[in-house]
Amino acid sequence: MDFRALQERCRNRSFDEIVVVTRDIFRELANLQRIEHVIPGEMEIRTQQTHPGLRAGGEEIAYIERSATVFYENTSLRLVEPVEGNTIYRQYLDRFGEGICCIRERIQVEQWQRTLEHLEARGYTPVQTVDTDQCQAAWIDLMDPLGIVYEMLREDSRCEEPMHVVPARLSQINISTPDVRGTIVFITDLLEIGPWEVGCQSNSCVTDYGFLVNGKLEEPEFSFLLAILVCGNIEWEVIEPVKGPLVYNEFLEQHGIGFHHILQEYPAWQWQEVLADYEKNNIRLNCKGKLGPVEWCYMDTSRELGFFKEMRTDAVMDRLPEGYLQFFYPEQNQG
Q: Whose CA is closest to 259, among 126, 149, 168, 181?
């Protein structure tokens, strides 16, 4: 797809669930409530009896998983503890450990078969499916190329109404990679997500920056490449570390490419209050910076939640600073 076709394709897409896998959902949920002050809108134990029809390789899977879902205004965050059964979530947990495993897209009914055929033409047949009167879903194993799982849910599938919705939005999900260009080329072709705005954050365009070095915030030379776009209800970001003590390096060494963090925006007037609350909960500030009028930082919630939490202020970025080196993929004049 060219620039304009991708823009149109991404305009109304909906990514309605992000899945975090854990070995202990009670610990994970307690930490999420303590740090983020959110409560689940749904808690359940899913089994072959309560949620039948989960199949892999033509056979129905006998499984047990504990599940708790926090519903935000634009998407949901589901915590899953795979207890029994060789589900795709169990396979992810065994391979990579705890963390952000999967993103789910609600596919319009008229796009459902086309999307399956598009993926299968590129060699990605669903490894797990549900096909019942109430639900049609398919899971695509992208652990080798992207370190993630991609789930599709047909739009007319029945979903439970949440008991509680958190009055906030999860603004962004991030994939960290050793090769930003190769990753966005692959995602663009496979998932038809784009066009990407690509740039570089470094000492030349970021101000008021600091990175945790030996327990202290320092001001070293740094740079990282990033590709970003808004796709329907959420922002996708892909980052490649280039220079400096960056938070992505350890993740790539231990995990390889994959979902690294979730970002949430806060009103500028609330910024210092939010930072103070994290400090009160003994959550370290790993790094921070300011790009134009927008402040950002990473909180090291990896031990408590299995992933990092990024935050930024809601200031309007009306012009990118000098040194950001912006370009687009695909190119704007392509096609």
A: 149
* Cα 115 to Cα 57, 105, 108, 304, 308, distances in angstroms: 20, 11, 10, 36, 31
Closest CA to 19 of 67, 78, 74: 78
User: 232 with 12: CB under 8 angstroms?
Assistant: yes
Element holding 309 (H helix, E strand): strand 308-313
pTM of the model: 0.96
Cα 87 to chain centroid distance, Å, stands at 20
Q: What is the rounded distance in angstroms from the CA atom of residue 294 to the CA atom of residue 268?
A: 9
Mean pLDDT of the chain: 95
Output the CA–CA distances (angstroms, integers) from residue 59 to 87, 88, 129, 223, in the order listed: 12, 14, 10, 48
- pLDDT single digits (tens) 140-160: 999 999 999 999 999 999 887
Residues 6+ apart with CB under 8 A from 211: 217, 218, 219, 220, 222, 244, 245, 246, 286, 287
Distance CA 312, CA 295 (A): 5
Torsion 313-315-317-322 (CA) sign: negative
Do 238 and 183 touch, CB atoms closer than 8 A? yes
Report CA 210 to chain centroid distance, whole Å: 24
Mean pLDDT of the 73-89 span: 97
Vertex 138 angle, CA 119 and 177, to 5°:
60
Q: What confidence score (pLDDT) does residue 316 get?
A: 87
